[in-house]
Amino acid sequence: MTQDVKKRIAELESTMGQADFWADKTKAQAIIKELQDLKVEAEGVGKYDRGNAVMTIFSGAGGDDAEDFSAMLFRMYTKYISNKGWSYNLIHENNNDHGGYRNITIEVDGKNVYGTLKNESGVHRLVRISPFNAKKLRHTSFSMVEVIPKLEKTSTDVVIPENELEMSTAKSGGPGGQNVNKRETAVRIVHVPTKLSVHVTTERSLAQNREKAIELLKGKLYKLREDERIAKEKGLYISKTTSVEWGNQIRSYVLHPYKMVKDHRTNAETAKIDDVLEGDVDLFIEAEKGL
Fold it and tell me: Which residues form the signal peptide (predicted)?
């Protein structure tokens, strides 16, 4: 971090501490964004690598097969997490009636979690004979993995003005027994400028779910800004939305007509797909670290 950057960060933080800081909301938001960008620039993409992470798996194109594939990926990653000696907690799940997931979010705790898992973010593709098709035809389905850093509650790397948030509530099916289902404790928060959204259903109260949701939203915004900064440095274009379908996959899992897992970014591949789906993804993790 250069002295000029240090000086500018100090100036901005001092300005934010003034009593009339929010008198001009447009100016205040511009100052907040400048401060956040400077901190990311100064501290680099490795700042949260040693910390915890939040992983979400979303189903994309492929119907029941995609939701089943999301469940397969969830099992693969939780096996990997267990093998690493890490732990995880469920934050939100939206499952179907045959064991698949439309989406599921977990918080992963351990040493170097974010640095290890962050490059798993992207669209994953499955090719197999569909168990949901009576004609036993080959089917292609897609799921997307998102990994964001878990920011501490006290972190000032991302500051979100209240007027940029939209919150809705619903009945929760999380811990706490039947009483929980009678009260609207589940929370969905949307960050209006970016359209990023989070769901939290597993905390016991509305306030706890809201606090957790804002924490996750900060992680999403940090990751977005980190990706944009890296893309700018490399002269690349980064889309704020990624379609979970053909053409966007980072890795393919092929079960038919042959067995192969291949990462399309690093060209790392293996025919031992059963081992991979049981959590043996070190080949890909190690190759990705050079990205």
Answer: none
Tens-place pLDDT, residues 134-147: 888 899 999 999 99
Q: Could you tell me if residue 238 is inside a domain?
A: no
- As a whole number of angstroms, the distance between CA 193 and CA 190 comes to 9
Per the CB < 8 A criterion, the answer to whether 211 and 85 are in contact is no
Same domain, 22 and 127: no
**170 Cβ neighbours under 8 A, 6+ residues apart:** 184, 186, 188
Q: How far apart are CA 246 and CA 45, in angstroms?
A: 29
Query: CA 14 to CA 129: how far, in whole Å?
Result: 61
pTM of the model: 0.80
Number of domains the chain is built from: 2
Question: Which residue's entry shows tokens 């732990």?
Answer: 87
- Dist. CA 150–CA 217, nearest whole Å: 10
* Helix, strand, coil percentages for the chain (3-state, nearest 5): 40, 25, 35
pLDDT digits 0-9 by tens, 42-80: 655 778 888 999 999 999 988 999 999 999 999 999 999
Handedness of CA 206, 207, 209, 214 (dihedral sign): positive
Alpha-carbon distance of 87 to 69, in angstroms, equals 22
pLDDT score, position 152: 76
